[in-house]
TrEMBL record, chains A, B, C, D:
<dbReference type="InterPro" id="IPR016125">
    <property type="entry name" value="Peptidase_C15-like"/>
</dbReference>
<feature type="active site">
    <location>
        <position position="80"/>
    </location>
</feature>
<comment type="similarity">
    <text>Belongs to the peptidase C15 family.</text>
</comment>
<dbReference type="Pfam" id="PF01470">
    <property type="entry name" value="Peptidase_C15"/>
</dbReference>
<dbReference type="InterPro" id="IPR033694">
    <property type="entry name" value="PGPEP1_Cys_AS"/>
</dbReference>
<dbReference type="GO" id="GO:0006508">
    <property type="term" value="P:proteolysis"/>
</dbReference>
<dbReference type="GO" id="GO:0005829">
    <property type="term" value="C:cytosol"/>
</dbReference>
<dbReference type="InterPro" id="IPR033693">
    <property type="entry name" value="PGPEP1_Glu_AS"/>
</dbReference>
<keyword id="KW-0378">Hydrolase</keyword>
<dbReference type="InterPro" id="IPR000816">
    <property type="entry name" value="Peptidase_C15"/>
</dbReference>
<comment type="function">
    <text>Removes 5-oxoproline from various penultimate amino acid residues except L-proline.</text>
</comment>
<keyword id="KW-0645">Protease</keyword>
<keyword id="KW-0963">Cytoplasm</keyword>
<comment type="subunit">
    <text>Homotetramer.</text>
</comment>
<protein>
    <recommendedName>
        <fullName>Pyrrolidone-carboxylate peptidase</fullName>
        <ecNumber>3.4.19.3</ecNumber>
    </recommendedName>
</protein>
<dbReference type="InterPro" id="IPR029762">
    <property type="entry name" value="PGP-I_bact-type"/>
</dbReference>
<feature type="active site">
    <location>
        <position position="167"/>
    </location>
</feature>
Length: 215, 215, 215, 215
């Protein structure tokens, strides 16, 4: 029996909800194809978020880990291509820490690429009418931190567990109180996530289609 | 018994669906509070759209008319403030006509203001967590044409029927195939429209809150 | 001898400069073709701005008046098509007044269209490689207020003076301190304004080209 | 005597000019502080661009290399933080090649960080009123390819030559013919580049200020 671990973040930056957790917690106790889904909420804190993630990996020994986070201002579900080895926080995390230009993991490689089939995941969501895209940057805040820590961990584990990171837009109720931001309904995000999980579970070799950015 | 007339447009500009009609047709035969809702699809054609609208007004004698259309690229439900007396088409309508700087109605006033309580409608949607805004321009294409024709007609009718125009974002399945566009789920639009109708039916005096644009 | 009156605004909303005045004051004592240019700074105050404008019109009896203002967030020089008879201020003006849904001129028409050849002006700027566009809304703040007051005045004057309004982007030094805003160099704006003035002085009949917006 | 090598690209994607070359070629034979500036145009071709760059490095033995490119759609001068080891072309390069998910350099590390003081460069430009920003992604096209190849080369050279990449917005004459794009005057870009070069020549330790992105 395969296990899929989904993580979402607690709210941060003054928000009272975080779409990543609102979506991920719908999946508790679900099965997708033949896999059991387990979910885990991560604190929006440098360091501690990676520890909680690693504890969940130890407990569940998942064969697929998808971490999710909020990318306020984006209008599509973004499947991240790469995590870089830098923490550079424009705003404080939930422990009031704001690291600047510090490595996620000292001595780690400059970056890790997602090991899930990002093109196939995006393509499958688009085929179902769900706005999705490959993203070339997960930022330098706690989302990138968790993605880097996840891929570092999986690279040093035996087995062939795959890992990736998905950024979600604001929920409509968040965008309603902002001056200018696109949003996406929770139902659309949930449908997209289900397709992304199924694709990551079943597609071995990623699609050979463009998903890059000119700049 | 009050009657509410909702109109939506047929697809245009190469699209196969139009969110305004997808949303409006859900309301066929519904009642909202004590009002009966009737719906009507308008052709995306200068002139003919206004004729079909006027026929529907003659048939149903509504006390509230809300016309809806697509504003591809916007991220919120937009309640329009004003319609101007000009047709200026960047793209051809569905009859391949492309008027430039022609009046909607010769000899008509330069503009008409919506007679529904636009601030209250936006405020009620925001209060329900639905991204909405007052818009200062309905463009110069068939949407503005229909809004102008509607308000001109109501201004010359006996009775106190109110009229307004609401622009909707793309649906997710439309945005999925575009390079860069925000979208909104049909369910979110439907919930917003219901609130807008209830508000237009019940709020006599519009709210005294800012809804303008600096530029 | 023809006289061209250019107006720009004092800074507002916390800014220390206003690109409209920075550009307009470069034109003091210039001649363009056979016309003398005079300039005038307007206060960013509802009511008083229109009074100062009217005093300048009385003094100079111009045959062309172009009022300029800042449209923070736009990336092109915008030639406005229409002014509407409403003041609706999201922020306070420089006298701390914030009118909501009040007419610019009680009993005035719902809107006035610019009487300068807006399409020809935009087309000439584009031909010179300067980003420009027709805009369908001048907002509902002091810019729209001044444009409406100008066109109302000219409509009630003998003679054939033409009037219009041009919105400018932020200057680079303004955008540098903002989170996210496009800008335009003062030199580019000045070059655009000169072309706009020349066009407004010489083109009688506006071009029959599309300049509208679908929404 | 120090030598600074600046590179710009030939036009691509149907454009007839490229702002990176328009700006860089102004610097031919200039001195900045005590450094000689040399310039080099790179073809917009995967592989060949890196070869031409490496030939220029061999010829001039620069102590600072800044490669510049166009980032159509951005509104600020972007100093890139990181180059990743992937070519993924949404459009064909000038040799009609369109690699997908291929490494820039087989066996190379996943990414390289710029070795110029990116925060100090951005900060100095902002202080001079020039819109600038740190960017977390140079894309996956020829710009990222050249940045990666440059940093790979410098990492394997003796000496302490520094390298970085700067993305420029469209020029006004490019934006004028596009539907919707911000632009920047060549003069503003040139002034920014001079400040960036001076900073990279004189600031040893980068500033400890935030320049990251939440997502």
């Amino acid at each position: 029996m395969k296990t899929v671990l989904l993580t979402g973040f607690e709210p941060f930056g003054g928000d009272s909800i975080n779409p990543s957790w609102e979506v991920v917690r719908q999946y508790q106790y679900r099965r997708i194809d033949t896999a059991d889904v387990v979910v885990c909420q991560l604190p929006c804190v440098f360091g501690r978020s990676a520890e909680v993630l690693n504890e969940a990996i130890d407990r569940y020994r998942p064969s697929l880990v998808l971490a999710l986070g909020l990318a306020g201002g984006r209008q599509r579900i973004s499947v991240e291509r790469v995590a870089i080895n830098v923490d550079d926080a424009r705003i404080a995390d939930n422990s009031q820490r704001q690291p600047i230009d510090r490595p996620v993991i000292s001595g780690g490689p400059a970056a890790y690429f997602a090991t899930v089939p990002i093109k196939a995941m995006v393509n499958a969501m688009l085929g179902a009418g769900i706005p999705a895209e490959v993203s070339q940057s997960a930022g330098t805040f706690v989302c990138n931190h968790v993605m880097y820590a996840l891929l570092h961990r999986l690279a040093h584990m035996s087995g062939a567990a795959r890992g990736g990171f998905i950024h979600l837009p604001y929920l409509p109720q968040q965008a309603a109180v902002l001056a200018n931001a696109p949003s996406m309904a929770r139902e659309t995000m949930e449908a997209g996530l289900e397709i992304a999980i199924q694709t990551a579970l079943t597609v071995e070799e990623d699609l050979h289609i463009a998903g890059g950015a000119v700049s």
